[in-house]
Design a protein that fits this description.
Layout (H helix, E strand, L loop, with lengths): L2 E3 L4 E3 L2 E8 L2 H11 L25 E4 H9 L3 E2 L4 H10 L2 H14 L12
Parallel strand pairs: 1-5
Antiparallel strand pairs: 1-3, 2-3, 3-4
């Protein structure tokens, strides 16, 4: 089981945000507690998320670059920008989508193709 964090490429005002997600809700909540992110900002959860955040397509938190650094220090695994989609595809058994991402990664940067066990 693992916690993941992608690259900070999503602007929010002056900040650059990224996504934090995990293989389990317990791991995700433990990580946000550890790095000081308020649980109320969870997105994509049917009961824990509030308002428009409930509509997110997967359970995650948007976190700042500073919180990202804390998460990595606490053991989160860094991914590229395809990390969330790849993780969801693997979790859902969507091998076509995972294979497509592997090919895109290999074309863009062969070192990225092996993230999450993809072929280089």
């Amino acid at each position: 089981m693992s916690v993941f964090v992608d690259q900070p490429i999503h602007p929010f005002g002056r900040m650059m945000m990224c996504h934090l997600w995990a293989d389990s809700l317990d791991e995700l909540l433990a990580m946000v507690d550890r790095i000081g992110v308020n649980r109320r900002w969870i997105q994509g959860h049917p009961t824990l998320s509030h308002g428009k955040h409930r509509e997110a397509s997967w359970v995650h938190f948007d976190i700042s670059k500073g919180k990202r650094a804390l998460a990595i220090h606490a053991g989160a695994i860094e991914t590229d920008r395809y990390g969330p989609v790849y993780w969801q595809a693997k979790r859902d058994g969507n091998t076509d989508k995972a294979d497509l991402i592997d090919r895109i990664r290999a074309r863009e940067d062969p070192r990225q193709a092996s993230l999450f066990g993809g072929a280089a």
